[in-house]
């Protein structure tokens, strides 16, 4: 390691903190900017519109297409209703989301960061607001350095008000996913909504305002773990924004290049790529953690190249491998060969397998369920007539949105009969019929009595069958216990 | 150490001055927002220490300006819950216990309330599963000494069993046939044989036949000639499979010789009417509860003005 010279040691700049370097990205037009507009419109539309889509589920269930009903512990997503014990579907979707991100990253790099991450989308939105009120990059620099006067205060207040307005609607839309949206809107504005609704809107308003308005790229660089993980997910065949240094270097203005033809590269050092960058980096330093691959520098550079009459693509999407090939003057790998490689195939197979397995599971799940627990305290009860009684806590789940008559049955115990806490021993029999309310669990205490003479522990099964559909059934294995000796 | 500090050339950042096998650490400054967050937490911490109990003292923590305590919060939560439950308790007390079955929801609420109260007041003798033990009745079964309908259970709860200072208590006293010299030891053994025959634990024998005569002379007045007992006096049914003190020869000899004297407190003087009613409902719900006289019969008695509560 090279040692520093004595002069350098004498005057180290002692800083308590590192202030954020202001980033005022310049407006730009081009292919990728248009793509960003489209994706922003789609993602924001999904976010704001989804809770308002209605979905008829009959009189016993909410008619909101997507609803996370935390109070009643139900999760509705269009035709699918998930109960808390089916949370593995949500876990499966999260695993799919994770693997999906791996797949996207290994194929097209940090596309998630550049286009559809909420932090990117909202920051982009906030920057448009900023440009609309303060003007473009240079005007913003000027305003930043200007002393506080009526004009600056006015502009700042206007900008922050619009930001706060957007932030408030961001938080406001979020809570709509957790309750019936039309009802909640009325409740919210009439002060009747739950405290947690106001608190959530408050917190999300604040975080959106701070993250989108002030933290911006610092969230990506310091706070978000995903860029670091993606760094590990990417390889030499992942698309990334590349500055073709072999073509651009050494940099020199058009004038210099005209004066000394052949001694300068294509980069005219106009700094447009730096000016438009929303994270304030210089892509010409190579791939780096601050680059979210939004490709706005490609748009900016292409425009400049057009103006100076040089070929586009000095900054371009390219894989590291293609960059090396191009440098060596060879053609790029075929796109299919780049996309279809073991890594992406494995990711897509896992992704698809989980998806298919979940679809299969959802299609085949029964919406009727019995869960019986043998009561342990006491394990058995001696009855006056010499029989022994065991009791069971039975939960019957009716996961359909209609009341359902259910028949509980028991496999044979000699001389055994059962009744529930709603009936009495006189009504005991081999089956028991009960109606379970829509979308709910009926809990009942089930008694089984059998003659005292018999094995100490006898296995048997409790079954439940829907009265209207013999195919809808479930079974739970339980046991029957007797005292060890007669005396 | 600090004299080893130097500025790292590629980054222009000072090092902290440590070195391990050539590896050094850059003293990169914190981002400003990070520092602000730290300051904000410090301010929050100071406010917290002033407002809430925080500094440990000899006996307790310093009292915060808000006067908050976890005990206070608990008490508030309990009293809030009690206020919430008050209508249920009122409804319970004002409903005729014989008509309680007519309102299943109130019954269910009473059972749940009783479940909690049972864990506080009753488990010491009857066990957490109400299964009892020798001398302490199992409340899950269908054999009752003093009656197993809601009204009888509530009466037993209010007035207790064998409370000498209370006139309305459930009271009975079996003679100590051996200790008081009423029967000879051999006679007691004959009686034991007969009682075991009644309970189906022994086969017919000469001793049992002798015991039958003794039973008719000494026991039938309370336990009835056929041994089925008498609930009005708390005389147990000797013919069923359930026994409070055991049906083996040793236990029965002890019972007949020395008698038994099980006591239950009268909860009427310790618990309020609503809690007792809840306990009655819970015990009744355990699986052996007996039916009340039919509701229409209750209506008849009520119209005659006989609907007063026992308490």
Automatic annotation (TrEMBL), chain B:
One of its GO terms (molecular function) is oxidoreductase activity. Pathway: Energy metabolism; oxidative phosphorylation. Residues 109-199, 206-287 form the Cytochrome c domain. C-type cytochrome. Part of the cbb3-type cytochrome c oxidase complex. Component of the cbb3-type cytochrome c oxidase. InterPro entries: CcoP_N, CcoP_N_sf, Cyt_c-like_dom, Cyt_c-like_dom_sf, Cyt_C_IC, Cyt_c_oxidase_cbb3_su3, Cytochrome_c_Oxidase_Subunit. The keyword Cell inner membrane applies. Keywords: Cell inner membrane, Cell membrane, Electron transport, Heme, Hydrogen ion transport, Ion transport, Iron, Membrane, Metal-binding, Oxidoreductase, Repeat, Respiratory chain, Transmembrane, Transmembrane helix, Transport. Belongs to the CcoP / FixP family. It comes from Parasphingorhabdus flavimaris. This is Cbb3-type cytochrome c oxidase subunit. Its cofactor is heme c. The keyword Electron transport applies. It is found in: Cell inner membrane. The lineage of its organism: Bacteria, Pseudomonadati, Pseudomonadota, Alphaproteobacteria, Sphingomonadales. It comes from the Bacteria. Binds 2 heme C groups per subunit. The chain crosses the membrane at residues 33-55. Its main location: membrane.
């Amino acid at each position: 390691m090279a040692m520093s010279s004595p002069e350098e040691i004498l005057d180290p700049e002692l800083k308590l903190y590192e202030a954020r370097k202001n980033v005022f990205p310049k407006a730009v037009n081009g292919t990728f900017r248009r793509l960003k507009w489209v994706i922003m419109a789609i993602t924001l539309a999904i976010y704001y519109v989804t809770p308002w889509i209605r979905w008829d589920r009959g009189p016993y269930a909410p008619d909101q297409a997507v609803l996370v009903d935390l109070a009643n512990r139900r999760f509705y997503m269009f035709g699918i209703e998930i109960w808390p014990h089916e949370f593995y579907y949500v876990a499966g979707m999260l695993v799919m989301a994770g693997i999906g991100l791996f797949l996207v990253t290994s194929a097209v790099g940090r596309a998630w960061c550049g286009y559809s991450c909420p932090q990117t989308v909202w920051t982009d939105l906030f920057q448009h607001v900023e440009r609309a009120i303060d003007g473009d990059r240079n005007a913003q620099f000027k305003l930043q350095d200007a002393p506080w006067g009526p004009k600056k205060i006015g502009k700042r207040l206007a900008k922050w008000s619009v930001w706060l307005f957007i932030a408030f609607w961001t938080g406001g839309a979020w809570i709509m996913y957790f309750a019936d949206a039309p009802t909640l809107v009325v409740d919210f504005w009439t002060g009747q909504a739950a405290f947690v609704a106001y608190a959530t809107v408050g917190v999300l308003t604040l975080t959106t305002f701070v993250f989108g308005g002030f933290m911006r790229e610092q969230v990506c660089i310091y706070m978000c773990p995903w860029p670091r993980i993606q760094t590990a997910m990417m390889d030499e065949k992942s698309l990334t924004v590349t500055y073709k240094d072999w073509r651009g270097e050494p940099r020199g203005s058009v004038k210099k290049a005209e004066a000394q033809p052949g001694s300068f590269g294509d980069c005219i050092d106009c700094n447009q790529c730096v000016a438009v960058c929303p994270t304030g980096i210089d892509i010409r330093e190579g791939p780096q953690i601050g680059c979210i691959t939004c490709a706005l520098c490609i748009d900016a550079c292409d425009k400049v190249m057009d103006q100076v009459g040089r070929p586009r693509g000095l900054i371009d999407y390219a894989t590291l491998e293609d960059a090396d090939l191009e440098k060596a003057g060879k053609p790029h790998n075929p796109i299919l060969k780049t996309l279809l490689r073991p890594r992406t195939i494995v990711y897509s197979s896992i992704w698809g397998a989980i998806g298919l397995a979940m679809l299969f599971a959802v299609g085949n799940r029964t919406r009727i369920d019995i869960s019986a627990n043998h009561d342990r305290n006491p394990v058995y009860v001696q009855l006056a007539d010499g029989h022994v009684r065991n009791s069971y806590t039975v939960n019957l789940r009716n996961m359909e949105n209609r009341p359902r008559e259910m028949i509980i049955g028991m496999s044979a115990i000699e001389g055994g009969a059962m009744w529930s806490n709603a009936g009495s021993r006189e009504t005991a029999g081999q089956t028991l019929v009960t109606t379970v309310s829509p979308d709910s669990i009926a809990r009942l205490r089930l008694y089984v009595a059998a003659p005292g003479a018999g094995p100490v522990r006898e296995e048997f099964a409790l079954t439940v069958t829907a009265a209207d559909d013999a195919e809808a059934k479930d079974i739970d294995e339980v046991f029957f216990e007797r005292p060890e000796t007669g005396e | 150490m600090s004299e080893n500090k130097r500025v790292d050339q590629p980054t222009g950042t000072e090092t902290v001055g440590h070195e391990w096998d050539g590896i050094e650490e850059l003293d990169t400054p914190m981002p400003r927002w990070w520092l602000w967050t730290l300051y904000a937490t410090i301010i929050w911490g100071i406010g917290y220490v002033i407002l809430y109990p925080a500094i440990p003292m000899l006996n307790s923590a310093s009292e915060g300006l808000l006067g908050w305590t976890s005990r206070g919060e608990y008490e508030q939560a309990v009293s809030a819950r009690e206020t919430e439950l008050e209508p249920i308790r009122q409804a319970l007390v004002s409903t005729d216990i014989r008509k309680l079955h007519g309102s299943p929801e109130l019954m269910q609420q009473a059972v749940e309330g009783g479940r909690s109260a049972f864990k506080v007041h009753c488990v010491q003798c009857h066990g957490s599963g109400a299964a009892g033990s020798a001398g302490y009745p199992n409340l899950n079964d269908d054999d009752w000494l003093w009656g197993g309908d809601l009204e009888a259970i509530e009466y037993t709860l209010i007035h207790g069993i064998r409370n000498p200072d209370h006139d309305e208590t459930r009271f009975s006293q079996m003679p100590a046939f051996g200790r008081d010299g009423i029967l000879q030891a051999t006679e007691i053994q004959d009686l034991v044989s007969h009682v075991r025959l009644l309970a189906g634990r022994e086969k017919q024998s000469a001793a049992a036949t002798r015991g039958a005569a003794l039973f008719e002379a000494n026991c039938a007045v309370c336990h009835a000639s056929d041994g089925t007992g008498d609930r009005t006096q708390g005389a147990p049914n000797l013919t069923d499979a359930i026994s409070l003190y055991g049906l083996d020869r040793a236990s029965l000899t002890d019972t007949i010789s020395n008698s038994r004297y099980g006591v239950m407190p009268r909860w009427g003087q310790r618990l309020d009417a609503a809690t007792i009613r809840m306990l009655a409902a819970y015990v009744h719900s355990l699986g052996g509860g007996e039916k009340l006289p039919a509701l229409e019969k209750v209506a008849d008695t009520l119209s005659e003005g006989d609907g007063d509560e026992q308490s």
